[in-house]
UniProtKB/TrEMBL annotation:
It holds the Pfam family Glyco_hydro_9. The keyword Hydrolase applies. It catalyses: Endohydrolysis of (1->4)-beta-D-glucosidic linkages in cellulose, lichenin and cereal beta-D-glucans. Residues 56-509 form the Glycoside hydrolase family domain. This is Endoglucanase. The lineage of its organism: Eukaryota, Viridiplantae, Streptophyta, Embryophyta, Tracheophyta.
Amino acid sequence: MGEHSRSKGWCGWFLVLVVAALIVVAVVIALKKRNDNSEPDLGPVPGPPGAVQKKYGDALKVAMQFFDIQKSGKLVNNKISWRGDSALKDGSEAKLDLSKGMYDAGDHIKFGFPMAFTATVLSWAILEYGDQMQTVNQLQPAQDSLKWITDFFINAHPSENVLFIQVGDPEADHKCWDRPETMTEKRPLTQVNTSFPGTEVVAETAAAMASASLVFKSIDSVYSSELLKHAKQLFTFADENRGSYSKSIPEVQKYYNSTGYGDELLWAASWLYHATGDESYYKYVTGKNGKSFANWGSPTWFSWDDKRPGTQVLLSRLSFFGSKGKSENIQKYRETAEAVMCGLLPKSPTATSSRTDNGLIWVSEWNALQHPVASAFLAILYSDYMLTSRTAKLSCNGKSYGPSDLRKFALSQADYVLGSNPMEMSYLVGYGDKYPQYVHHRGASIPANAKTGCSDGWKWLNSTNPNPNVAFGALVGGPFLNETYVDSRNNSMQGEPSTYNTAVMVGLLSGLLTTSSVLQSFT
Ligand SMILES: *[C@@H]1O[C@H](CO)[C@@H](O)[C@H](O)[C@H]1NC(C)=O
Ligand SMILES: *[C@@H]1O[C@H](CO)[C@@H](O)[C@H](O)[C@H]1NC(C)=O
Ligand SMILES: *[C@@H]1O[C@H](CO)[C@@H](O)[C@H](O)[C@H]1NC(C)=O
Ligand SMILES: *[C@@H]1O[C@H](CO)[C@@H](O)[C@H](O)[C@H]1NC(C)=O
Ligand SMILES: *[C@@H]1O[C@H](CO)[C@@H](O)[C@H](O)[C@H]1NC(C)=O
């Protein structure tokens, strides 16, 4: 009896448990369903710059120093103890002062194409996040570094259809291992003109000057107008004399080969539209040229060679904020920007597989970090456009993501670069306790008081000692796909920094600097 009733009781309790479990499962499914369909949480309405995230503020201060390290010419308020004046006679063979501008990477060539991209990205970062840079006193240094480049561009554009696009001969330069302050190699000039056009380099320079004209508009209106005048002339020069500089001047293929100029034309026109409000630039990007060059629907990687994703995000601004954004073709730019974002989000149905095991976007062995950092910069911009315009979600093949998902992605890439990686190393030189000691950078590898010149300086490349000078703010090429890094001075594939890497890093860090950011109109 007792036995029987216990077993009956057990049966009853079992039934109750089964029913309870079924209810729990049903509730969980219902909740999950509701969650999937509900709007992603937008969080509080963003206000002026929120609390500064010390980590990113510190990293930004480090990153910004690399621009000072790369400056050519007669330095002003030089803060880098091991740098001095250099290349003072650059441009003299054409009776021009081309002494300013920046060395592009570890050597001493001033390559106009990546230098212009550096300036455009730096302008963009200042325009979107200048108020945040200001919270850690980095706005003025950013403006000063930008002007160091645009001063050079003004002088490099002596007449409407001539632009000097390179100072120095890479072949001669690469035979030496010397400091910029003591270099003796010849510094020939390279120009593009109507007979030898260079649409991409001229258009990128137009983009740089148009975006910079917006940066300086309220600070120095005369300078801003001058930049805008050059930008307009350069755009016309680029557009009316179409031809790739890689074809006109085949020697450039070895260094910054361009895969096409259509992207730079659209990018430049987009910046000129923002800078002038002139309808003709709007029609340029939405009309026939948009159709020819925009490649709507196909996401690509933002880099010094490919400006399409940047253009898509920049033009999305019109769709998020302005009445001009209703045109069908502006929507196509925005849809393509969304396809880029969906590719970046790690859990999206269309997530790119170009990633390391630990989630770093990884596209190429050479200068691997350029892609994740540039992508994360675009992601934080897009996230802030969504937040500021109260746009709750982005749809990726039916799955919804909110601005916080994009921010999370951007943070993951920044944190990886700053040390959350299997090497437990910061790839931003000078940040954290552990960072590359053998950066491929001549100035950093040679003691400032060394007496060596062009040829005997090679002993500094061969030296097994760490660099005597720290190249603060250098963002090195970065890890292999298997997430290893060989810290060796001759390893330029992984260990060479560049101004354009630092520019996208500055953009990313400025965007992550505070806990909330609301973007403002910059036109
Ligand atoms: C035009 O540019 C080409 C390529 O840089 C150069 O060889 C040529 O001398 C330039 N033309 C003039 C008139 O300077
Ligand atoms: C430069 O790019 C063009 C266009 O993509 C390509 O045809 C050419 O082979 C490239 N040159 C080099 C040296 O890679
Ligand atoms: C540097 O090393 C290379 C090869 O490892 C050697 O050929 C060269 O002589 C060395 N140069 C100096 C200045 O030590
Ligand atoms: C990682 O990849 C690099 C480049 O492909 C290769 O040289 C290296 O041997 C790999 N290291 C490991 C530990 O697998
Ligand atoms: C580069 O440096 C590494 C280690 O310092 C050395 O093993 C290698 O031979 C060097 N390679 C060249 C091409 O000099």
